[in-house]
Structure formats: structure tokens, C-alpha cells
């Protein structure tokens, strides 16, 4: 995107996002060692986590070369309105929200699910505002 004249937005929250998501994965592993697998909860959460990954990859495939983890907008690039973007303005964030509670709950890691969901909601408030502003400025 930089080769196409792209400009990066929202750099201030990006380090927090990296720390939050890395901590989320680490917390899932650590807490799962101390929690039981409950089939009535774990199997449905596994299905949701896999579905979230399917949605994420659909987003990545739909965005093609416009996809990345940062907010980079290149002039003249059209707003993507196909794939899951037909129904949701930010479908990848739907995947992140579902993954945020489903992945830890596969192994009953309710504390990780709760803390990540709350912190991620705050992060997404900032992130979506920054992304929308960036898209409008392009």
C-alpha cells in the first residue's frame, strides 16, 4: 500500500493492539492449563472460533492487496463493498469479537474471555473511528 502512495493512520493505538492480541493468545494458553474442558461449552465455542477464522480469511481474500493489520489508505483505491463487506462495514472486527470470547471458552478460560472482550471493545471504539476517518479522507 505504501508503494501505491498509501498513508498510515491511527499509529497511536497500534502498539496497544499488538500487546492486547499477543497477551490474549498467551492468556488463553496459560488459563486453559488451569481450566477443565467442558464439552457442552467447548465444542460450540470451537465451532464459533473456526467460523470466526473463516470470516477473517474471507475478509483477507476480499481485500486482497489492500489488507494489512495497520490502517493504510492509498489514494484512488476503491472502497471494498464485496464479500462480507456487503453486509458489515467492518466484518473482520466481527471475527475478532467472536474469536475474543469463543477461543478462550473452548477450554473454559472465562477470565481471559471477559478481560479481552472489555479491553477489545475499548480498542475497537478507537480503531473503528480511526479507520472510518482514514477512509473518508482518502
From TrEMBL:
It is found in: Membrane. The chain crosses the membrane at residues 12-34, 40-59, 71-88, 108-126. It comes from the Bacteria. Its main location: membrane. One of its GO terms (cellular component) is membrane. Keywords: Membrane, Transmembrane, Transmembrane helix. GO terms for molecular function: protein C-terminal S-isoprenylcysteine carboxyl O-methyltransferase activity. It is a multi-pass membrane protein. PANTHER family: BLL3993 PROTEIN (PTHR43847). This is Isoprenylcysteine carboxyl methyltransferase family protein.
Amino acid at each position: 500500500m505504501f508503494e501505491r502512495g498509501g498513508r498510515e493512520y491511527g499509529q497511536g493505538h497500534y502498539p496497544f493492539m499488538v500487546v492486547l492480541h499477543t497477551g490474549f493468545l498467551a492468556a488463553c494458553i496459560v488459563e486453559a492449563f488451569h481450566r477443565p474442558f467442558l464439552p457442552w461449552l467447548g465444542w460450540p465455542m470451537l465451532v464459533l472460533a473456526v467460523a470466526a477464522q473463516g470470516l477473517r480469511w474471507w475478509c483477507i481474500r476480499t481485500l486482497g492487496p489492500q489488507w494489512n493489520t495497520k490502517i493504510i489508505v492509498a489514494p484512488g483505491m476503491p472502497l471494498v463493498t464485496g464479500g462480507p463487506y456487503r453486509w458489515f462495514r467492518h466484518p473482520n472486527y466481527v471475527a475478532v469479537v467472536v474469536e475474543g470470547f469463543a477461543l478462550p471458552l473452548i477450554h473454559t478460560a472465562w477470565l481471559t474471555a471477559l478481560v479481552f472482550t472489555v479491553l477489545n471493545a475499548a480498542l475497537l471504539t478507537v480503531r473503528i473511528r480511526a479507520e472510518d476517518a482514514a477512509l473518508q479522507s482518502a
